[in-house]
């Protein structure tokens, strides 16, 4: 195996801030008394509720049906009674939410049963199991996994890559998963490889996690088709196009998808969820999340049930140290800032980051000094300063000529800017305006 660290052009080196939780084993969170399960937890169409108020439900029971191809069903994470079905706040906006009061019995639904050995399952059966288990990308984006594993016939896939980079500062959920359940990740990768009929699999792990690299090499020892790829510790190494280049030297064209270069990328957490769905039959109803930051008393890695309110999860970590300055679902670079802790954990909740008022303070921007640092570090080779300048002047047609839609919104430009310009925020505005105009046309 090649132990040379692979990487990509550009990128930044933000402080890791992982020491608070990287050595902490995953703890099972306390059982929630009430869960709030949104019908929209993924990229694509929301689900339709298939239960009504007053119904008794069990763990693993389907409560939301996916009616579109780009969607994924949703299941109950507790046994109990449906109390309400209404529009409520979620970490990604308002959505129809099923409120279930737990009965504390943890009864498992009759449909939850082992699906058999991967060796004896056809690729169609594996994709069907993944779809019915409601598995979506666990790295944060939340793309329905069965869609990724159903490429059109003209797209020939020959490689599967698992993303174990976890390049976001603060987050350690994937790191702990690799240390604690490496065999399940390998099983999940083998299932994905069979689903898309390929013979080569890679697991990319940043070299600031040498213990994870070592343990995954041991887990894959008897699997000649699987290779562990050490990656240079650099942000955004976990972006799938950067990961593909680092692992295979293939370059996904602008506007293209991984399947255009014969690759499917999934997160290590997604692979684990797939293995669990096959081995036990349990759909995606819980996940590991890192609860951390300067505003949290006792940072932890917790196994949390989907639908558990943020405030309950934070209380299990000792609560806030002081007045929180900012609460983010995910990491500080690409996470989503929250206006309330009264929102539920969803399938894509990789972490809850609480920053104190000092760490959350955003400095006032100075004028651009045209140092071009944002150009140098942009992993997509864009010119953020020009896109931002035009966006701030609402000159979106002119901004479009600088290809803002290729921006992966990693935030590297804002991080590196010595003038602390709102580069990412203004580029996001330009992207939304350009997309909106295209739809109208």
From TrEMBL:
Required cofactor(s): [4Fe-4S] cluster
Single GO MF annotation: metal ion binding
Taxonomic superkingdom: Bacteria
InterPro entries: 4Fe4S_Fe-S-bd, 4Fe4S_Fe_S_CS, Ion_transpt_RnfC/RsxC, Nuo51_FMN-bd, Nuo51_FMN-bd_sf, RnfC_N, Soluble_ligand-bd
Membrane topology note: Peripheral membrane protein
Record-listed [4Fe-4S] cluster 1 binding positions: 368, 371, 374, 417
GO terms under biological process: electron transport chain
EC number(s) from the headed UniProt entry: 7.-.-.-
Binding positions ([4Fe-4S] cluster 2): 378, 407, 410, 413
Main location group: membrane
Start and end residues of each 4Fe-4S ferredoxin-type domain: 358-388, 398-427
Keyword Membrane assigned: yes
Subcellular localization(s) per the UniProt record: Cell membrane
Similarity comment: family membership: Belongs to the 4Fe4S bacterial-type ferredoxin family. RnfC subfamily.
Function: Part of a membrane-bound complex that couples electron transfer with translocation of ions across the membrane.
Subunit structure as annotated in this protein's UniProt entry: The complex is composed of six subunits: RnfA, RnfB, RnfC, RnfD, RnfE and RnfG.
Protein's name according to its UniProt entry: Ion-translocating oxidoreductase complex subunit C
């Amino acid at each position: 195996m090649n132990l040379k660290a692979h990487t990509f052009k550009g990128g930044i080196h933000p402080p890791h801030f992982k020491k608070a939780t990287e050595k902490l084993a995953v703890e099972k969170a306390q059982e929630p008394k009430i869960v709030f399960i949104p019908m929209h937890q993924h990229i694509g169409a929301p689900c339709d509720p298939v239960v009504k108020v007053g119904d008794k439900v069990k763990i693993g029971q389907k409560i939301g049906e996916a009616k579109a191809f780009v969607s994924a069903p949703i299941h109950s994470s507790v046994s109990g009674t449906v109390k309400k079905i209404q529009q409520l706040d979620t970490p990604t906006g308002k959505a129809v939410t099923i409120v279930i009061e737990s009965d504390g019995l943890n009864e498992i639904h009759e449909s939850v049963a082992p699906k058999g050995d991967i060796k004896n399952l056809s690729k169609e059966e594996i994709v069907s199991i993944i779809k019915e288990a409601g598995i979506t990308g666990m790295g944060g984006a939340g793309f329905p996994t069965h869609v990724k594993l159903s490429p059109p016939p003209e797209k020939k896939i020959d490689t599967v890559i698992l993303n174990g980079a976890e390049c976001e500062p603060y987050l350690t959920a994937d790191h702990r998963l690799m240390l604690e359940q490496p065999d399940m990740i390998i099983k999940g990768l083998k299932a994905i490889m069979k689903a898309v009929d390929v013979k080569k699999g890679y697991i990319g792990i940043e070299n600031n996690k040498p213990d994870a690299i070592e343990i995954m090499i041991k887990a894959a020892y008897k699997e000649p088709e699987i290779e562990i790829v050490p990656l240079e510790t650099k942000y955004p190494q976990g972006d799938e196009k950067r990961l593909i280049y680092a692992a295979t030297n293939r370059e996904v064209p602008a506007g293209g998808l991984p399947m255009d270069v014969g690759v499917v990328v999934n997160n290590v957490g997604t692979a684990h969820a797939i293995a669990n769905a096959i081995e036990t039959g349990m759909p995606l109803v819980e996940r590991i999340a890192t609860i951390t930051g300067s505003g949290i008393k006792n940072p932890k890695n917790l196994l949390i049930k989907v639908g558990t309110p943020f405030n309950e999860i934070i209380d299990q970590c000792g609560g806030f140290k002081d007045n929180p300055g900012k609460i983010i679902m995910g990491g500080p670079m690409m996470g989503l800032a929250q206006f309330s802790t009264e929102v539920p954990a969803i399938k894509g909740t990789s972490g809850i980051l609480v920053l104190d008022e000092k760490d959350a303070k955003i400095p006032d921007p100075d004028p651009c000094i045209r140092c071009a640092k944002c150009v140098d570090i942009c992993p997509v080779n864009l010119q953020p300063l020009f896109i931002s300048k035009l966006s701030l002047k609402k000159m979106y047609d002119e901004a479009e000529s600088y290809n803002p839609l290729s921006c992966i919104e990693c935030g590297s430009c804002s991080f590196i800017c010595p003038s602390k310009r709102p580069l990412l925020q203004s580029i996001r505005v330009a992207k939304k305006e350009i997309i909106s105009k295209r739809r109208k046309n």
